[in-house]
Write a structure and sequence with these properties.
The protein contains seven helices and no strands. It has one domain. 83% of the residues lie in helices and 0% in strands. The longest helix has 31 residues.
Length: 156
Amino acid sequence: MVSGPEITAIVHGFLGTVFLMAFAGAFAELVEITNSGIKRLKIGVTLMAASIIITALLGDLVYTVYRAPVPESARSVILAGPTPWVHTVLMELKEHIAHFVPLLLIAVAFMVFYYDKDLLEKKELRYLTTALLVFAMLITLLVFGLGAYITKVKPI
């Protein structure tokens, strides 16, 4: 039977996939922005922001199980095993940088909604929006990679 933390982890991963797909659409719209593409861009960044906020909250819930002060918790097993650096370096890095992504996506969503049609005419504004979006994606990919490795070392 699947436990609550496992279901939370599955939903967490699913929403991460939604985030990745929404990024592809939003990035494509920004690269070749059109008047009709503004609406699709708004949908994409809204999906990204919503999915990453929920993903981060679910990740925090999973993390509480991971850090449980019992000998069977993933944290305790990793720290007692041959690779304690997986927790002391990788998990700590993942834990902190993951919270920057929702903030970046809120900023991108604000820019898209606030500047709206100005994104069509102002190249610098479009480049800045694209750069923030790509930066958020790079951080997300790093966090996903760290999560996958940590889960490989000790599944929840």
